[in-house]
Design goal:
Two copies of one chain form a homodimer. With about 400 residues, chain A is an alpha/beta fold. Chain A has 14 helices and 16 strands. Chain A is globular, with a radius of gyration of 24 Å.
């Protein structure tokens, strides 16, 4: 099974890698039009997934993410058109120089080959991930949740048809129809066929990838994001950023989870910001000092400092110095996004330099760690690892950089 | 054991990451001077390793690589000075732009943190690898062959002393003193401490890494490098490149292993080139067609096409077209280096575009896939994987790129 998928993907990847930009764009725009034209059929198909999920006792947020609406189908279509409008990364020259012996070295972006994506019960990821992978000149193998299988296959079929209509290969898009765990494991270990695996899911999926995957992967991991409000901060600006970072979408990885406040402003700032957060429905847990300023705070436990809540919960700590803020974040941060609110140049410089996170924000909401906010048009995830790419992953993350060396007979 | 090493490395890596270039350079230059000053002691220590290796029946090339000479010590010293003279990659801005909302995004190079290197019985790698890792702002953990343990520890001690004399941390350089396989496995799985593992060794080490490592690594893999001599090639130039690629250093991964010759020039070119190769001591194995042109060729077996000989052996195949050359290399190449000798622009373009190798050479020896030849001053290996870096790995490969986002109160 995985061999047949892998061989088909590898073969199709060659055509996709060589395809001119306008052909790839034609396929993406064709797929967008196809999604719109077949909205009704997609919603019917999706209703089948939703009904079956209900009989299996699925409800709440999971069911909501599984459900397609006309607006969500339109969102997929416009996402594909946005990707079509992005510059093609393939062939971009990223370095070049001439050596003393006359050799001309040129480093340029090339497709990776075959990209696999494992994702949860959100059918729109089928179109979003495929669009990015195809535009970057790759074939893509998609493995969604079994709950969304009918929907994913239907979306995949529209993408495949658009590929053929543009003169490209249908097999550059494959949706795995086997929903078993064994099939997922086979994909994670398909070293001969998969050049990059992007897992989009929670800690359980990440743990499974780390334990079992033998293919190269990029981890889209947890975001235990901190905001440090420095002694010199503009407190109005700080309050607005803290509330936005925590409240605007608490369930995502770039939401702030921890608030560190410098002791010199705690008496002024803590009551203000906790009042605003409380009004927005945030449960607040503080360390002893924070609770001495705002007695309504719940008591934070040791676990709080390392927990990614993904919910309307925030832990608050009063700290004595930039040094303490930096060492706290170093100890508990997950390498995703850290923010400082300050007017002090040295504090900002130190925060950026000394913290090892994918993104360090100065006087901005943590929520800006996001592909669209970075101008990538779409993202296939946010890398929390150090190799290959850190932070939002757009088209570039789905390419590699290789070398051409042009000579005129040089030998060593 | 690994925890103590890891914790010490992590702590030292923070100081190293923040160190100004001139401090890092001072340490490298101090280490170079130290190696020179203690040459005699190093040679004595190394003689102990060599003697014990002999009693264990070690000889030949392995013993040669294990042996230090005054010239080799001088080579290490000058290597460290070369690395000191290279531009510091830390802080280099690799991308930057302003978003419509005024956010200023800046991507810059930062140290990875802790780099581990596992290598064979070549003590000079201790200094070479440490020099690159330290210059890129990392701490380094070195795990050489047990045969070279005394030598490696002695070289490591000189590097550690130079760190301290420059005001940096000794523990930014640690040579593992436990030569057991268990210690190597612990290093491969020290996810909390190691940010990048670079294995420098043969297929057995690579297989062990792929099977057991849970830390991030970059594979420095096999080079089954091809040279395709096109119908339009300048045959004198082609012969010189083929001989150089095969003969100048047959035991290294950038040596050519396979020769593909277009049928239209085979009658002219094959007798010439095989005569030159034969005179240089190369054993030649041909397919049926090649043997019809030069009957002295041995018969190539199916295995030959996928074998990296690392020896004075070369397999020769006559092919009908650029297409056939490309599909043969696609099937058997290892993604290291492929070369085309041609005067035909389209053939050159197709070879570069359609082959998925770290480096594609046009009219140049495969031997140029090398850190020094790329101007990197030194290399820590040659990546044959696609993620993070492809081809020669210099200082840049030992950094990551992370983001600073500067705002003035932006929220989403």
């Amino acid at each position: 099974m995985i061999q047949a998928i892998g061989e088909a993907a590898r073969a199709a990847s060659r055509r996709q890698a060589m395809a001119d930009t306008h052909l790839k764009n034609r396929a993406l725009e064709g797929a967008a039009a196809g999604l719109e034209a077949e909205t009704e059929l997609l919603l019917e198909t999706n209703a089948g997934d939703v009904d079956e999920a209900k009989t299996q006792g699925i409800g709440g947020a999971l069911l909501d993410r599984l459900r397609l609406t006309a607006a969500r189908v339109e969102g997929m279509a416009s996402g594909l058109r946005q990707v079509a409008a992005l510059p093609d990364p393939v062939g971009e020259v990223t370095a070049g120089f001439v050596r003393p012996n006359g050799l001309r070295m040129t480093r340029f972006r090339a497709p990776l080959g075959v990209v696999a994506v494992i994702f949860e019960a959100r059918p729109n990821v089928t179109a979003d991930a495929a669009g990015l992978a195809l535009k970057a000149g790759n074939a893509v193998v998609l493995r969604g949740s079994s709950y969304a299988l009918r929907s994913n296959l239907a979306i995949g079929e529209i993408l495949r048809r658009a590929q053929v209509e543009a003169g490209l290969e249908a097999d550059a898009v494959q949706v795995m129809s086997d929903p078993s765990r064994e099939a997922a494991r086979a994909l994670m270990q398909a070293k001969d066929w998969i050049d990059l695996l992007v897992p989009r899911g929670g800690p359980k999926l990440i743990a499974a990838i780390e334990a079992e995957a033998t293919v190269p992967y990029v981890i889209d991991g947890a975001g235990n994001c901190h905001i440090y409000v420095d002694a010199s901060a503009d407190l109005d600006l700080a309050a607005e950023i803290v509330v936005n970072s925590k409240v605007s979408r608490p369930g995502v990885c770039n939401a702030a989870e921890k608030l560190l406040v410098h002791q010199s402003i705690a008496a002024d700032f803590l009551p203000r910001v906790t009042k605003l957060l409380g009004e927005a429905g945030v449960e607040l847990r503080g360390d002893e000092t924070a609770r001495s300023f705002v007695e309504e705070l719940l008591q934070a436990s040791t676990d709080d400092w390392s927990t990614e809540y993904l919910d309307l919960v925030m832990a608050v700590k009063v700290i004595d110095s930039v040094d303490e803020a930096i060492s706290h974040v170093r100890q508990f941060g997950s390498g995703h996004t850290e923010a400082i609110i300050t007017r002090d140049l040295e504090a900002a410089d130190r925060f950026v330099r000394e913290l090892d996170a994918a993104v360090v924000m100065v006087n901005a909401s943590t929520r800006f760690t996001d592909g669209e906010e970075f101008g990538y048009g779409a993202e296939i995830g946010i890398s929390t690892q150090k190799l290959h790419v850190r932070g939002p992953m757009g088209l570039e993350a789905l390419t590699c950089e290789r070398w051409m060396v042009q000579g005129s007979g040089q030998v060593r």
